[in-house]
Structure formats: C-alpha cells, structure tokens
C-alpha cells in the first residue's frame, strides 16, 4: 500500500510539534492533547512524542563525535551575530559529510534528519541558552531540507518506518 502523501502545511505543523517535543526540557513528558493528526488508516495517528523519542535515540548514538564541539563553537559565535539558521545548516552539513561514508546505505534525507536532530539535541544539552534559537533553526532546517520528502513518506510518523528498513 502506497503511503498517504501529506501537504506541505501538514508536514510543517508535524515538524514544529516533533521539534517542540524533541527539545522539551522534560525529555518526553509533553502535553499530548495536540498529538494526534488523523490519517487514513484505522488507529494510524501522528504522535510527535513517539517520533521525537525515536529521533532522540538516533541522535544520542551520534553525540560522542568530537566534531560536535567544533560546530557548537561556530553556532555559539553565530548566535551572537544572529545568523543561527545558516550556522546550524553549516554545522549539519559538516556532520553529514563526516558520516556519509559510514552510512552510504542510508537515504540522504535520513542522514540530514539524523545529523540535524543529533546536533540540535547536543546544542540544547551543551548550550541551553540557545535552545529557543536552535528550536527555530532545527524546525526551519527540517522543513526546508526534508519537508517535501517527509510529505511523500506520509508524514513524520511514517519516516520512522523508513529508517528501520
């Protein structure tokens, strides 16, 4: 059965909720009243908490990379200059290039998702004063770079299925 393709606005909304849950200070304790978007299948609902938990698990595995400290330093300098979105994108690109040979069998979109989420969580933990700026940068990055791909998969809740194949 082909995945349900979502429109770009629905994916933007899902992305915003997923990133809010991902960067929530309670790490998983989130108000779930907003967490269901009906889809075509029975019992098939979008839950940003579940998606965020899966992304957090993926990201935790990458946080030991020493390049995170270098790109965090660059991001902190950029935050002072109010160019966080570009610095965040540059940091993710650097991390993707470093990991591309390790995961050549992984779709480029998943590499971007993994690197950006890992970097976003690393920044949140290492520089909590940048949390709000990074939340916006991560949401913008994912919407811009993988939003249409996520829509073609049927939404964020379907992306997790793709990563496990």
Describe the 3D structure.
By secondary structure, the chain is mostly helical. It has a single domain, classed as Apoptosis Regulator Bcl-x. It is 65% helix and 0% strand.
Q: TL;DR of this structure?
A:
One of its GO terms (biological process) is regulation of apoptotic process. The chain has helices at 8-22, 48-60, 67-80, 84-99, 108-126, 131-153, 156-163.
Structure summary, number of beta strands: 0
CATH class category name: Mainly Alpha
How many whole angstroms does the radius of gyration measure? 15 Å
Return the average pLDDT rounded to an integer.
Answer: 80
Number of helical segments? 7
Shape: globular
Strand-and-helix sequence, N→C?
Answer: HHHHHHH
Distance between the termini: 16 Å
What structural category do the secondary elements indicate?
Answer: mainly alpha
CATH architecture call: Orthogonal Bundle
Could you name the key traits of this structure?
165 residues, Bcl-2-like_sf, Bcl-2-like protein 15, Apoptosis Regulator Bcl-x, apoptosis, Bcl2-like, BCL2L15, mainly alpha, 7 helices, 65% helix, globular
What's the arrangement of secondary structure elements?
Layout: H1 8-22, H2 48-60, H3 67-80, H4 84-99, H5 108-126, H6 131-153, H7 156-163
Helix pairs in contact: 1-2, 1-6, 2-5, 3-4, 4-5, 4-6, 5-6
